[in-house]
Amino acid sequence: MSHQHLEALDVAAIREEFPILQREFDGQQVVYLDNAATTQTPDPVVDAMSDYYRESNANVHRGIHHLSQEASNAYETAHDRVAEFINADGREEVVFTKNTTEGENLLAYAWGLNELGPEDEVVLTEMEHHASLVTWQQIAERTGATVRYIRIDEDGRLDMDHAADLIADDTAIVSAAHVSNTLGTVNPVGQLTDLAHDHDALSFIDGAQAVPNRPVDVKAIDADFYAFSGHKMAGPTGIGVLYGKRDLFEELDPFLYGGGMIRKVTFEDSTWGDLPWKFEPGTPQIAEAVGLHAAVDWLEDIGLERIQAHEEELAAYAYDRLAAEDDVELYGPDGSDRGGLVSFNLDGVHAHDLTSIMNDHTIAVRAGDHCTQPLHDKLGVPASTRASFYVYNTREEIDKLVDALDDARQLFA
Amino acid sequence: MGLGSDMYRQQILDHYKNPRNYGELEDPTFTHIGENPMCGDEIRMDVKLDDDEETIERVAFSGDGCAISQASASMLSGKLHGKTVDELLEMDRDDVIDMLGVDISPMRVKCAVLAEKVAQDGAEIYQGELDVEKTTTED
């Protein structure tokens, strides 16, 4: 994809909106490269949430008073804004959850537990996050369904021939990551969805690492369900989104029960409220919804295509710089067609040791299995170090990361 | 050493690069394994007791993982020599951190205490007071 026509980001101006990036430890300014875990929150998002608490705070839906009307309006409008953002057909298709993981669980419990049986197959990929992998494993165990995994090739891309073999008439659902949180691979989720639909199976896409950094159009993908998290896209923690096609959401029973999601309750029975509220029982994340709305505004002001171009440029730069080091092993595809993250190991240095040494330089990266233990087993390493980028990161920060490798080499030589 | 890498003082790096008592005993009185699943640290501890069935005569360890977990196992294997099983069971995480002689950040404490916990669980299994296949330091 060419981004030549896009104007580069004014990173210096963007960084002004993140006071946390000015923080120092031991006199060294923080280099924040842990964005696949969580992104930092710009002032406009913090301000929106703070203004909400200072000026409009009340419970939603059932209030007749002014403040409750304001809070309800803010909460409901946030659904509309998110729907517009991902090209969904209105708030009915946008359910607010706690995070991507809860979105996976909502569908797995509300649909999987009721609909799956011993003859059904759930098709995942070998690069699934535990949020999807563990959830479907458990649902399969309880329903007798079988979980199958689409293989990855040597470059860390999905083997689509294998996908075409695996996805068959027994397939009930295909659940796949849009962008791998470990390999950075961008998966052909539209193709996977087509394969699923060819066999009357559902498609669930985990967009946690995609929505923050590229334009996502759920209609273009034709995904039946699509989940993501607010805190990985400059928004607050505690809120995520589960998109679902309206007719599918209408057929689905609720996952959690309580107030706010019912139409009529008697001592004997209850009926469910309208979409999306039937999936949002109890007092919801109102301030977080306001924050998510502000984050969507903030991202679209910058432009998702420009953000994608910036991330791809940084990822390619980091990949090339690390690939030039003989003692660094990189995982996932090379080239620019990858998400804004790079996972690697330095020969002879455990990922946790390397990450501790990075921390001595106030460089924040993540070590571990990144919630993809089976994938790490396949790669033959217990853990890796992951550097992940966002709108405010620079080439200079990646240079610091590469320079710090020398320190680790000296210590462990 | 400089560079602020206090966690990697010479002693730890030395034990990591040249582990003491590395390997497996031919006739251990008890042997046990453990891991930190999130880090991939794995340790096997073999312990041979004296004829009095109380005094630790030899310890060997094997496994792989980060510098902190492996150095801790190496240092512990030497420290346990001549101690009684009860003394082993009385050890706590502070003893391990004192032994390492560095500040261990909270997230790395589980790496530091893995070997101690494996040896202790092995001893308790030997005494019939514990029944686990594998020790894990994840809560």
From TrEMBL, chain A:
Coiled coil: none
Source species, domain of life: Archaea
InterPro entries from the UniProt entry: Aminotrans_V_dom, Cys_dSase_SufS, PyrdxlP-dep_Trfase, PyrdxlP-dep_Trfase_major, PyrdxlP-dep_Trfase_small
SUPFAM superfamilies: PLP-dependent transferases (SSF53383)
Entry-linked CDD domains: SufS_like
Keyword Cell inner membrane tagged: no
GO MF, any single term: pyridoxal phosphate binding
Catalytic activity: (sulfur carrier)-H + L-cysteine = (sulfur carrier)-SH + L-alanine
Key words, A-Z: Pyridoxal phosphate, Transferase
EC number: 2.8.1.7
Keyword Transferase annotated: yes
Biological-process GO terms, alphabetical: cysteine metabolic process
Domain Aminotransferase class V: 31-401
Cofactor field: pyridoxal 5'-phosphate
One Pfam family, short name: Aminotran_5
Class of enzymatic activity (EC top level): transferase
PANTHER family tied to this protein: CYSTEINE DESULFURASE, CYSTEINE DESULFURASE 1, CHLOROPLASTIC
NCBIfam families documented for this protein: sufS
Descriptive protein name: cysteine desulfurase
UniProtKB/TrEMBL annotation, chain B:
InterPro entries found in the cross-reference section: NIF_FeS_clus_asmbl_NifU_N
Location of the NIF system FeS cluster assembly NifU N-terminal domain: 7-128
Single GO BP term: iron-sulfur cluster assembly
SUPFAM superfamilies: SufE/NifU (SSF82649)
GO MF terms held by the record: iron ion binding; iron-sulfur cluster binding
Protein name stated in the entry: NifU family SUF system FeS assembly protein
Upper lineage: Archaea, Methanobacteriati, Methanobacteriota, Stenosarchaea group, Halobacteria
